[in-house]
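#struct-pred

JT: dropping the chains for the assembly here, can someone run the whole complex?
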Amino acid sequence: MDVLFNLAQGFLSAMSVNNLIACFAGVLLGTIAGVLPGIGPTGTMALLLPLSFGMDPGTGLIMLAGIYYGSMYGGSTTSILVNVPGEPTSMMTCIDGHKMAKKGRAGAALAAAAIGSWVAGTIGIVGLMLFAPPLAKAALAFGPPEFFSLGLAGLLLLSNLTGGSFAKSFLLVIIGMMMSTVGIDVMNGFDRFTFGVVDLANGFQFIPVVMGLFGLSEVFSVALNPYETAAAMKVKFKELYPTKTEMKRSVWPIFRGTILGFPLGLLPGPSAFLSTLISYKIEKQVSKYKDEIGTGAIEGVAGPESANNAASTGAMIPLLALGIPFAPPTALLLGGLMIHGITPGPLFITEHANIFWLVIASMYIGNVMLLLLNLPLVGVFASFTRVPVKILMPIVTVIMFVGAYSLNNSIFDLWIMLIFGIIGLFIKFIGLELSPLIIGLVLGSVFEEGLRQGLVMVEGHFLLFFERPISAVLLSISIAIVLWVIIKQLWRRPQVHPNTVNDPNLDRGP
Amino acid sequence: MKGAKSVRKQVLENSFFGFLLLVCIFYLCFGLMMPIGSVSQPGSGFLPAVLGTAGVIFCVALIFRNVLRKNQEKIEDFAKTGPMRFLGYVIVLILFLATYKWLGYVGLGLMVLCLSKINGFRGWLYPVLFTAVFTAFIYVLFAVLLVVPLPTGIFL
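RK: done, full complex below.
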């Protein structure tokens, strides 16, 4: 009953004109940015974060959350109509979505993506509403050893899930953690790695780093390789309705995508992207029409689109309940909350219950807005892909610089953004993921505080960390991950890549 | 890709890990100068020492593995004029940051103009018009509506 009462209160606040406008602006801007190739949810949120400055914390958060799930929605439009994924999570949608469009079923594909996203988003919010408060309550029992163990397990899982090499991802996690140690040590006031630079006393500011890594690096990569403004296929309003058969065929993929995506969202790393890959694979294996998948089947659109939306909602649970973001977009939401003077964590849901339930209610409203926006206005959104690079890139660059400056009125932050933009470009260029670096930066301080305070608590007897049940489980997971990586390395057959010349004396598996 | 440039991935990776190795060595050296403390009373240098050591080990291992594998894979991911355009961006942004405090909105406008020219905006009338309109929009949005105090420079 408490849940329903709180939700009703949330709806009452969410229905105020200001909050409705913020929600609408968030989902609209998010959708537009999701449509534009390359920028992605993290870049979009970084870009538009300053717009929330003048707002109340709740209203600002509503807009940021709207941008987050709006950009998830928007990516599917370009995937289907232009065959260019607006953001990585829409990559799988390109395969069947664009083929459906070529067959004259673009409207049905767009509708399946929009309905699937709406269903998954709504079910995801129910999950968030039901699971976040109990998790936050449980997290009240967390002490430093638990936070250390959670940080460790999270970082190891992240390194293992990013898809590429564990060693490379873990190295980036280490670099991110190194960055988190810069600044005054909060435990004893010791100045670390600031070299007398006053601006570094508070450490690397998270937002300029993220804006550089995700936003500016994308501008640079477009400079290196400008994309052609794409000609999007036109869709008539009457073509938007899927046929009865298409609707029927979408039901199970949407359900499977949602069930799969939501728990995956709880994992650290690019879980939304992973969920689309797994959902597509599952559809290819279990769908009644599995032979058609890859040739323009609606299952290949409905499943992955539902999965990524469910995952992006699930990813908000660790953020709101534990105060720990496991993915870059939620890390930006954390940044946005902190700018408004709110620190998410176990106490957030009790101390700021009004904001928590306001955001939950606004997410329901935002999802309906998205559905209503995306279906009739799909042609308008697709036309954003025609904005030429010569106009778009200067606009994006200026908004980013002005936005980063306005955080602390500091030109130093802009230098940080520029440096990390170049670093981010390089990391992407050699095919590495950016998320380990950013999650290392965010979780580094949680990890360090947990470790140092925990060691003081147990007087240096680290094994006592295993006597606390939650900590023991999380540490066991960490050990299992490390063992899994070692065993995988030892037992891996030597792979011969077509472009790889292996020394015959090396890489001999047992 | 027609007219595209390519580089060997291994060369890029090794340069990157080499750079990170230098960063880690530098970090470790300075980390070791801090009070490390003991296991029961870890000091400020405790985690930096652990992270620096781990970073050095991982960098060396990755470079070593890369050298042994002789990966011939190439990255063909940028247009012929791409590197020059990227360099142009970096130079414009450095100049902008160095002068932003004094030039304010004028600096912002000059940056927009330069970036639009780098991105292939032909002629001068439209780029200048675009710059003026967009800079005015930024002024209205940030200075008037959001009341964010951006540097106005010596001209305003």
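JT: nice. Chain B touches chain A through 75 residues (CB under 8 Å). The radius of gyration of chain B is 24 Å.
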